[in-house]
Amino acid sequence: MALLTINPDKCNRDGICADVCPIKIIYFKGKESLPVSVPGAENLCIRCGHCVAVCPTGAISHEIMMPEQCLPVKKEWRMTPEHAEHFFRYRRSIRVYQKKTVDREVLARLIEMASYAPSGHNLQPVKWHVIYDSVELKRLTGLVADWMRYMIKKHPDVANLMHMDLVVAAWDAGVDVICRDAPHLIIAHGSAADTTAQTSCTIALTYLDLAAPPLGLGTCWGGFFQAAATFWPPLQEAMALPKGNVSYGAMMAGYSKYKYQRMPLRSKPQVTWL
Ligand SMILES: Cc1cc2nc3c(=O)[nH]c(=O)nc-3n(C[C@H](O)[C@H](O)[C@H](O)COP(=O)(O)O)c2cc1C
User: Which mutation among 97, 148, 221 tests ligand 1's pocket best, with the greatest number of atoms within 8 A of CB?
Assistant: First the structure.
């Protein structure tokens, strides 16, 4: 199949597909001509689907997506600014979870929603690793505590900054402030050699964090876990990510024990305008 296929009966030659193409591989030979792609377009196209998504008449198909496969944008579902502001402000970091596992299908849907996050060059480099079993999560969390013990001994300045002594003391007393007794942990990982992977994982996890409340889920960034996953070989080994991949972020997930009633205040944005 060709990279782009144009339905001549539907194409109204408005040029919008060429205008929005990020790589500018679509052009028109003349006013009445159909859109065509530049030589070598197959190697340049980032497969973002903008040409298919923007065409008002559904005249353009890409080799990996036809207009009929792409869900239409529902105007009636667009958030008002008030709804959007509420949506961004009501999400909370959840640190107290019900002792209840989340169905795999629900976590899979959460991850699917997060997979629509933007990625550099549309490379979509984010891979997901779900620590679904809470016993296994406890074992991995114990390795984070081991890393902290090592840090307290060998790098006390860094350990002090992160109050690792308190975290370890809590862990030893049976209180988990590392993964908060969450039933599940979702790790976003990618190739260590891919320079876009870290940012893409962070953005995808941010999407995941935002997608959780509409699914009735609570999430919290696993900052301690991610730090240990970056620096502590025993944890890296235990996570068993595919060879060459590293963890770029971790998110606890489960059902919140409590409901929040109000949205806390935050500092005013510091903005400079030119
Ligand atoms: C990169 C990052 C790492 C974080 N790590 C942790 C963590 O290890 N444990 C934790 O309880 N909260 C962690 N948090 C949550 C923040 O403390 C939280 O976002 C902040 O207090 C604001 O609260 P809110 O998310 O409810 O608005 C982290 C947040 C971010 C963005």
Answer: 221
